[in-house]
Amino acid sequence: MATPSATPTVVDRCRTGIEGLDNILDGGIPRGNTVLVSGSCGTGKTTLSLEYLVRGAAEGERGLFLSVTEASPKILQNLSTFEFFDRRIMESGQLVFVDVPVLYEKLGLSKEELSPEDVDLLVSAIVRLARELKVQRLVLDSITSVCYRVRHEESIRDLILKLGKSLSDIQCTTLLVSEIGPSENRYSLYGVEEAIADGVILLGNVQRRGDLLRTLKIIKMRGTTHSRAQYVIDLTPLGILLAPFLKGGRSEGG
Fold first, then answer.
1. How many domains does the chain have?
2. Cα separation of 85 and 89, whole Å?
3. CB atoms within 10 A of CB 90
4. DSSP H or E run through 233
5. Cβ(17)–Cβ(86) under 8 Å?
6. Does a structural domain hold residue 3?
7. Tens-digit pLDDT profile for the chain (254 aa)?
8. Is 5 inside a domain boundary?
9. If both were cysteines, with which of 146, 191, 202, 227 could 24 make a disulfide (CB 3.0 to 4.6 Å apart)?
10. Would you say 224 and 207 are in contact if contact means Cβ atoms under 8 Å apart?
């Protein structure tokens, strides 16, 4: 007698709203994942992260953007140039911007280097804010800037583990923007961040026939199959568009 096959597990997905990205992720990011969005300057990291929040807010999922180095008014000014942005999502509270330096000040984190106790205090404050706002999507731009103040690999590991787990527990899907050099062979400042994160989306620049093209590749994504091909991305007024660049296979998430 044939053994009945196991029922496939249905993965609850957080659709990014960026159609091409959702397609290569087999429907979206598994809900609750913590994902590094890594790349060098000008590759589209912040734009992708903002579109992820705006598209989610338009579908009723509250979002929180935590800005470490750039003031929120400037980010909003740049965001307003995109046709997919509707300021009403801000007015309704569906999308909230918080400047992390203001949060540092409120928490009394004035020291240049954050201690393990300071890291715990920061994580608790972010998670508390996410709970109070009932957000389902969160972006921290950038995790690299926070890590500059943490410095020690063990403390960085604790920061990402605790933040990721606590946000996952409230079903919040998180993007951590990671700044890397154009020629680096890793996806984060210290190389430990990508090992802990559930996923890595790598953005880059490639020269082709004299043009500098932006590219995107999914390095890993736990909980889903995904394409491992490289894609060209175009930052249009309507949003991010993806097109195949090189042939590639598919990989089980892990």
1. 1
2. 8
3. 16
4. strand 231-236
5. no
6. no
7. 555 555 556 789 999 999 999 999 999 999 999 999 999 999 999 999 999 999 999 999 999 999 999 999 999 999 999 999 998 999 999 999 999 999 999 999 999 999 999 999 999 999 999 999 999 999 999 999 999 999 889 999 999 999 999 999 999 999 999 999 887 778 898 888 999 999 999 999 988 777 789 999 999 999 999 998 999 999 999 999 999 985 444 444 55
8. no
9. 227
10. no
Which CATH number is 118's domain given? 3.40.50.300
H-helix or E-strand containing 220? Answer: strand 211-221
Outline where the chain has alpha helix (H): 19-24, 45-58, 72-79, 88-91, 100-107, 116-133, 143-150, 153-169, 193-196
**Rounded CA gap, 21 and 150, in Å?**
32
| Range of the structural domain that residue 213 is part of | 13-251
Handedness of CA 140, 144, 145, 151 (dihedral sign): positive
Please tell me the number of Cα atoms within 13 Å of 37 on its side-chain side: 26
Residue whose C-alpha is closest to residue 199's, from 182, 232, 181, 176: 176
Tell me the torsion sign for CA atoms 157, 132, 54, 253. positive
The amino acid at 4: P
Q: Considering the entire predicted model, what is its pTM?
A: 0.92
